[in-house]
Amino acid sequence: MKLYLITFIAAICCYSASAQERAERHIRFDFIKGDSTRLSFNEQFNLIEDSCSQVYRYAHVDIQNKIFTGPFTDVSHADPKLIITQGAYNIDGLKDGPFIINYLNGNLQAKGSFKNGVFDGKWDVYYDNGKPQISFEANDRDIKIIDEWDNKGIKTVTNGNGIYRADLGFLYWQGKLLNGRPDGKWKSKRASDNADFSSEVYKNGVFQKGMALSEYTDEPRMALISPSNFPFITAEKFQLSDNPCDGTKTNVFVDAHFTGPLPTLTNRIDHLVYDYLRTPNLMILADEITLEGEVNVHGDISKLHGTTSNVNAVLIQTLIGLLQKLPRLTPATLNGNPVKQGFAISFKFSGGYYRFNYKFLPVPH
What we know:
The protein folds into two domains: 4-168 and 223-251, no CATH class; 255-360. A hairpin with a 5-residue loop joins strand 21 (287-295) and strand 22. It has helices at residues 265-277, 280-283, 313-323, and strands spanning 4-10, 14-15, 25-33, 36-41, 55-62, 67-76, 83-89, 97-102, 108-115, 118-126, 132-139, 142-149, 155-158, 161-167, 171-178, 181-190, 196-203, 206-211, 215-216, 251-254, 287-295, 301-306, 332-334, 337-339, 341-350, 353-360. The strands form three sheets. It has an 18-stranded antiparallel sheet, with no helix packed on it. By secondary structure, it is mainly beta. The longest helix has 13 residues, at 265-277.
C-alpha cells in the first residue's frame, strides 16, 4: 500500500509571550488511501511532530469539517501491537458503538458504549494499576453511579450510595449519592486550593437550583464523569501540543468551548431564543444587532450588552436574559490556566426569519 505524506502548517491559537503571532508547527497527516490517515499524538492526545509522538491514530478524517468518521484505532508508537483506543464515529463525527480504552502501560482504562456522542449503557473505569475506579450506567444523558473506589482500593460508593467526587481538571464536584444520583447540596471547589467555586442542590437526583455568580434554576452545570478517564476525546479538537519537538516553549491559548450534554452551543442558543424570536411582532424586523460580553474564568457568559443604540432596547435586554441561561462553558485557557475571553453574537432579521452567529474574541497577552 502506497503511503502519501502531506505536511500541514498547523494553525491554532498559539501565541508568543510578546505578541499575538501564530507559531508555525509542521504536523504530518499521513494519508494512506482516500480519507484514511495516520496522525501523531502525545500522551494527552494533542497533535505533535512524528518524532515525539506516543500514540498513532489510524482513522478516517473529514478535513473540511475537522471530524473523525468510521472506525479508528489508537496504538502505541513504541509498540504498535498495543492498542490504546478502539471505537468508531458516525457520519456526523459523533462517538458511536462499543469502545475499549487502555493506558499506555497496556492496562484497561475504560470500556463501554457511546450512542450519538453520549455514554450509553454500562461503563467500567479502572486505575492505571488495573484496580476498579468507577462503574456507572447511562441512559441518554442520565448518569447513574453504581460503585466507586478510591486510589487505595477503598470503596466509597456502594450500589449507588455514598460520598462521590468528580475531578474535572481545575475544579472538582463532591457530594452525596442516593441510588446512584446526586442528593442534597453539592459543592465544586478549585483543585489548586480547595476554595469554594459554586454549589448545586438536588432532591432524589432531580436538580433544584445552583449558585455561582448568581442563582440559576434552568439546568445543572455539574458533570459526574471526569473527561480525564477518556483522554482520546482530546484528539477530536485537533489541538497542538504545548511544546514542539525542539523544546521551544510557546504560550498556548485555547478558546472557550462548550462541552455540555447537548450536541453543540449553536443548538443550545437556538433552543433558548427560538420561541421568543418567532413571535409575530419580531417577524417583521429587518435589522441586525450585535451583543458583546465575555466568558469569565468560571465559564459563564457575562457582561453582555448591545453595541448599537438604534435597536429596540426590550429586544436586546430579552436576548441578554435568555443567553445568560446558557450552560457554563469550559473557559479559555492560557498554558492551562483559565482566563477570561471576549464573546460576541450577532442576530440578523430578514423576511420573517432570523439567523445568528457567534465568535470568541482574541485575548491580549
